[in-house]
């Protein structure tokens, strides 16, 4: 009986984890009757929002169908058990245990539905939002500042972390962008040097 209780806890934890993800991705609402939360979200990509709405609609449709079918199935199992109790003795504890087993199996289906929905949202996010990050060149001022540093330190074009922070602040870019720029610049410079030899 202890193992069943642990299973219940792990199912509840998994459902709570998935619900948190679905809430973060706006598939479910914390307060379903409050429409103001949805309207306050900025829609940057209408096509993304449209596809997200389709996933949301599919999830809610399937969840409603699942809830109805689960209740119907549990009612059917109860009816069968009561009918069987006319033929052989079945205690209320046995009935309760059987319903508990059925509900656990149904819980696994619910977990699968939520996992599939989370995966669909993550795939959409990866495919659509991450793919939209466009490569862009730095403006002239930023290029000038970085090139000046590079050519004035040509013997050792590897700025320290402190210098990278300062350059990033001057240029209004991230340290990661400065790192990438220097890595690319060193590569292009070496390639050009080899070509010219």
UniProtKB/TrEMBL annotation:
* A matching Pfam family: Homeobox_KN
Entry GO CC = nucleus
What residue stretches are annotated with the PBC domain?
A: 1-130
Q: Where in the cell is it found?
A: Nucleus
Per UniProt, the keywords (alphabetical) are: DNA-binding, Homeobox, Nucleus
Instruction: Quote the DNA-binding region ranges, renumbered to this chain.
Output: 131-193
Name of this protein: Uncharacterized protein
Q: In this protein, which residues make up the domain named Homeobox? A: 129-192
**Where on the tree of life does the source sit, at the highest rank?**
Eukaryota
């Amino acid at each position: 009986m202890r193992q069943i209780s642990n299973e219940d806890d792990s199912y509840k934890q998994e459902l709570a984890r998935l619900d948190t993800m679905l809430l973060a991705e706006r598939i479910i609402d914390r307060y379903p009757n409050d429409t103001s939360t949805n309207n306050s979200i900025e829609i940057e990509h209408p096509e993304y929002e449209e596809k997200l709405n389709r996933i949301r609609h599919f999830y809610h449709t399937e969840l409603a169908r699942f809830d109805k079918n689960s209740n119907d199935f549990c009612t059917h199992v109860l009816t069968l058990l009561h009918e069987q109790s006319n033929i052989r003795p079945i205690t209320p504890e046995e009935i309760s245990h059987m319903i508990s087993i059925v509900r656990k199996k149904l819980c696994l289906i619910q977990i699968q539905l939520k996992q599939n929905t989370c995966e669909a949202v993550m795939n959409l996010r990866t495919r659509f939002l991450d793919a939209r990050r466009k490569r862009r060149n730095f403006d002239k001022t930023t290029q000038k500042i970085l090139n000046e540093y590079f050519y004035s330190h040509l013997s050792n074009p590897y700025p320290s972390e402190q210098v990278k922070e300062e350059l990033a602040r001057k240029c209004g870019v991230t340290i990661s962008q400065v790192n990438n720029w220097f890595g690319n610049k060193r590569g292009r410079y070496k390639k050009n040097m080899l070509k010219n030899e």
